[in-house]
Amino acid sequence: MGLALGGGRRVRGRISIKLAAIWLAVAIPLFGVLFAGYYHWYSARLSLIREQRLDYARLSGRSFGVLIEDMRRSMRFAGPTVSKSESNAGAELMRVAEPYPVAYAALADTAGRVLAASDRRLVGADVSSDTAFRRAVEAPVRGGIEPSEVSSDGLVGFHVAQAFGPAGERPEGVMLMFVDVRELHRSFPVTVTTGGTSIVDSDGQVVYQSEDPRLAETRARWGEIPCVRLALEGRTSTSLDFQYPPAARRIAVFVPIATLGWASGSAVDADVAMAPFRLALFAGLPVAVALVVATLAAVFVAMRRVHRSLASLAGEAKRIGTGDLDRPVRTDRTDEIGEVERSLEGARRELREARQQVSRELETTRRLLDAARGLAEWTDPEAVLGSLAAATLGSTRHTRSFVFLWDESRRELTCAAAEGEKTFPVGVAFGFGRLSAPTQQLISDHLTRVVDFDTLPAEERGSVLEGSHILLEVPLVRHGRTIGLIGVDDPGERREFTSREVEIIEAMSAQAAVAIENAQLLEATQEAARLNEALNSVDASIHSTLRFDEVMQHALDEGVRALGCDAGAVEMREGESWVVRYQRGFSGSDVGMSLSDDEAPSAFRVERLREPMATEDMPADEKANVGFVKRYGLKSVLAVPLWVRGTVAGCALFYTTSVRRFSEAEMDFGRKLGASVALALENARLYEGEHRVAETLQEALLALPERLPGIRFAHSYHSATETSRVGGDFYDVFELGGLFGITIGDVSGKGLDAAVLTSLVKNAIRAQAIEERKTPGGVLAVANELLYKESPPEVFVTVFFGVLDAQAGRIIYCNAGHTTGMVCPKHGGVELLPANSPLVGAFEDVRFEDSEARLSAGDVLFLYTDGLTEARSDSELFGEERLYELLHEVAGRSPQALVQRAVDSAVEFSGGTLRDDLAVLALRVGE
Fold it and tell me: How far is 704 from 715, CA to CA, in rounded Å?
């Protein structure tokens, strides 16, 4: 008995040991599998959080970079305009700064002195020591940003600077904006559903924190935090124990903003981020405990069955732990093992659902980030709107999305982009009265609406979205006003919207409104720059030539190009008719055609309105010239009046072959173009009158005898511009009883006034030279006294006057501040006749000296004005050295050949464009 009992105990002991071994053999792997599964899940959740924070950090940095680049672009485009706005530069600066979170904007010269500012107290300040200013002036990119600082007014912020001026040349000036960090959060185009984003400057100071916008004002310094420091050094870093707020543990990722040397980061509360994992962990613990208890009970009930079943369950658990969650666990048993199988199957389903949920969250985040990247990358409004419509449709399970823009002045919505089924044509517009009542209300209160048309009264449905059952409308809002809306629906189907879908579209709307405004601002800036460039080109043409036909054709060509039109024409009012004088884009066969008021309706209406006028749909205009419109396929026209002395003298017309709505900026361009052309018309009229007087005076001033005994001479006068046909350069050769008077001079100034003084000096020298006892110095002394009394203080004359005795081979001369005269011997060489007396007319009591030079038979006296040696090729002068070399080369040639060679060389050197008139006189004795 005792032995039996002892044997039974031993057997039970062995069985217990085997059961324990079996239990351990199953329980340990099972616990390992469960731990591995939860640990894998934990790692996946943590990795997901890191990736989300990394994406948000990058998006934050990219958006901040886009904001800074947009500010610099605005300053670069606005700089030339502001620098030319002498009276309203401050207002222009306020306009440039208005869209941005800045305290003030300023314009400084390249030395750092503030010339204008939106805050007048800053005018005259020295910003040369400012980091951003120095970078803008010195760096090749012409832009700079400085770390945040406290201004003299106690504001916390940082400067953004942008130089402007022609590429490759020294900047013309520098625009600066002081970004106020208190306002930065209102313009920052990043939306984060959980956690927050931060921007840290290169000194480690916080300049933006989405959860606590006032943190930047406290001058919080994060530069010593390891993950922030690494980002500022150019490396992406992660922290699982980021202490902000100080009492909280956060998961944070910081990335460098390479273009600025700053850092961008995103952080989320660790407890909040890991809450879904803990929730699932606690929910799964009872399952794990039940699984262990059931396994232990099964071991004691039936060892073999437990062994087989646990082995099977261990395999299933291992499979689930490795991530294979798609194949179900067998649940056909009805005993305790079956319960464990069903529990394991429940755990598998929960894990799969959790994984699917994480995948959906990742996909949603990816789509939002893709949409944000797309909106941030496009600068063309049309591309931004198209990207928004596509991203909206791709982020929901619905079949149609569209973007409408609201025009407050016209009180209508216009389709700007659409994707999906039964879309609207882009450009179709709907008046306010055709909109549904909820849409009308959305425009005023800026609130998202899910509209159920099936329950809406018929009188409130409007006539826009026929066939729509349920519509999601999300407003696009900027600066407290609705600029448009995003719509999503399913034409012909009734499909509800989830709260998550509404949240996604609202997030996109917040980012899209900023992107649309930035793109429109850039487009408006580019349009203004394009139109200003065209006006500058026209103005330059007007001031560079008086060829009226050339100016008018150039103005028409520039107008067509700047407005993006297909054709243009200028019709002039001549009597009772309109005559086509200039065309572009047409066959040209209409030039010279005379039209009645009915045949030129646009010009006639502009003449009556006295303002630019646009017709968007010419075929529908009952007053249009139908034959002309059909022949060229015209759709729209902008007509601009051309003024002369308060009267409309003509009309410039710009046509398109597609329906076009001309913007206010384009209408203003038309007004300015008309004013510029009016100036050309007036200049041409004045020029015609002065030109006749000019030709008469010029002939008198430059008239010389055809020949004189004993000498041979040649002369040439070359005008720098058409308007300088009458200038201050002159020369004269005349007989003095066997001697010869030789004069060449240059009166300061141009035009008819200079010509009058030229005549006075020339005639005074002739009159005084007749008196035998007066030397050249004495003659110029009398001319000096006369000119000093009869001319303004700023007027003076440089004169070379000499008396030549050809038989004796001697010249006595007085050089009053004129260019150096030259004697060129026939065998080569040059003898200089430099100035020996002061300017004529500049001072009252001065002495004029005489000098003497010898000329042998065949020698040449060469005289010229400074327009010859000051001819320019870029920044280089023709100079006296080149003239000496030229005279050496042509030694012994005739005066005519010498003069022609000198003039041709100067004109060729300057590229055909002289900056000053030139006169040349050469005489050879012994002829």
Answer: 9
